[in-house]
Amino acid sequence: MSDLPFGFSGNDPDRDGGDDGKDKPADSGGSAGSNPFGFNIDPSSFDPSQFGALGAGFDPSQLNPEMIGQLFSQLGTMFSAMGSGSTGAGAGAPVNYELAKQLARQEIGDFTPVLDKETSAVADAVHLAQMWLDDASALPSGVTNSVAWTPVQWLEESLPTWSKLCDPLARRLSQAWADGLPEEAAAFAGPMMGIMGQMSGSVFGAQLGQGLGKLATEVLTGTDIGLPLAPAGTAVLLPEAIASFADGLDLPAQEIIVYLAAREAAHVRLFTHVAWLRQRLLSSVEQYAAGITVDLGGLSEAFGEGINPEELMANPGRIEELLGSAASFEPTTTDEQKAALDRLETLLALIEGWVEHVVTRALGDRIPATAALTETMRRRRASGGPAEQAFATLVGLELRPRRVREAAALWDGLLQATDVTTRDRVWDHPDLLPDSSDLDAPAAFIASIAAGDDTDPLEALRQVIADEEAAGDTDTDESGN
């Protein structure tokens, strides 16, 4: 394949001029003062792959008892250092993000710095895509800045959002473990809960770091996972990942870049002008986390057989045997969690479906490869793209790619029945959006919007709420209360 246009190049001497053209991972060694564990262990000695066994999305059923036992067996050597470490970086947080960042940086390894011509290329591609999107959406442009990022920039810029996603899950999982301990185990664990909290934060941080390090080398744009990870109004493309992505396709490179720029610009447009959308996604994860419970029946049985807590305190290696012989620690999925998961999955599908639909409308007659690229992105999702990896590996939520096809079909059907303005006004309020049942059978939803397309849907919603409140007041008056 020929070199990518717009300044993107798979074989640029400025980029591939040996080690001089590469940035190296930062040295993660150093003094204990910079050690995110808070005690004298060099984070560089940790192999991120070791933490893969800890399971997806903090799922306790996937925890490796042998590895947990190994961690506990080191407690004796750590106790003397924990005093000073209790105030170190990452201490007290449900996830040790300093450790996550270090391990992710190691996972990324060498990377190619962004060239000036690539930054210009991103600006040109986004500008062109923006003009075409104006014809396909009633929402105005939300892009105020266009940038090209390296994988490390993506990592650093995305961590604040990941903390909002992962904190409630990690915090609730840790609390669920504490709440689920049998009485004997709780009595034993009481004096150690602070230490265990720091250790669990490090374990979660290691898992997060491994996942983010992998994602950082694969994401193509700032919104590739379905969330806005860049500053507000910023459209982001990652040239190194795009070059790799393009090398596997028999399609014109120029069309690939403009297509990806259009997807990014459409995402930014939506998140900029639908003010409630980002928080709605985060709150759905928090609602899912709130229902986490863990079945520690295996530990209860083990303590019931005469396990002596004092023996465990004196011999941490015994904990390894206990965890190895205990039954699995099963998380219990509640109805509330299932509902939160359904809302999150549906909202992500509606976002991605809208972007796919709008980009197809904007580029279909201008970029011949649009249909092929749309199908490529669908296959990427089906085989576990960055969004699927992110929510499954880091958050523990399984997304179904087929819902995106259904959502795109719904938006297309709504446009055919109404117009661009009516379609996009559905985003005015979360209660106006279709739910999962509407994705299964969209005809009724489309008909309801089309029937009222001469009225403001948000005003119609306010009227419904007012009518319900009035009916409630009438019932109260009649009851005399």
Considering the chains and any ligands shown, give keywords for the structure:
two-stranded parallel ribbon, 21 helices
Walkthrough of the structure:
The chain is mostly helical and 481 residues long. It has a domain at 342-464. The chain contains 21 helices and 4 strands. The strands form 2 sheets. It has a two-stranded parallel sheet with strand order 1-2. Strands 3-4 form a two-stranded antiparallel ribbon. Helix 3 (97-108) packs across helix 5 (151-180) and helix 4 (116-133) packs across helix 9 (253-273). It is globular. 42% of the residues are buried. Residues 16-21, 26-61, 71-88 and 323-329 have low confidence and may be disordered.
In helices, the fraction of residues equals 55-70%
Q: What distance separates the N and C termini?
A: 77 Å
Largest sheet: 2 strands, parallel
Low-pLDDT stretches: 16-21, 26-61, 71-88, 323-329
Query: What's the overall average pLDDT, rounded?
Result: 76
User: Topology as H/E string?
Assistant: HHHHEHHHEHHHEHHHEHHHHHHHH
Structural class: mainly alpha
Gyration radius from CA atoms, angstroms: 26 Å
Number of strand elements: 4
Q: Walk across the major sheet and give the strand order.
A: 1-2
Strand percent estimate: under 5%
Per DSSP, the total helix count is 21
Overall body shape? globular
Please specify the SSE layout and strand pairing:
Elements: H1 65-73, H2 75-85, H3 97-108, H4 116-133, E1 145-148, H5 151-180, H6 183-189, H7 193-216, E2 234-237, H8 239-247, H9 253-273, H10 277-290, E3 293-295, H11 297-304, H12 309-314, H13 317-325, E4 330-332, H14 335-363, H15 370-382, H16 386-394, H17 402-417, H18 420-425, H19 436-440, H20 443-451, H21 457-479
Helix pairs in contact: 1-13, 3-5, 3-7, 4-9, 5-7, 5-10, 7-16, 9-14, 10-14, 14-17, 17-20
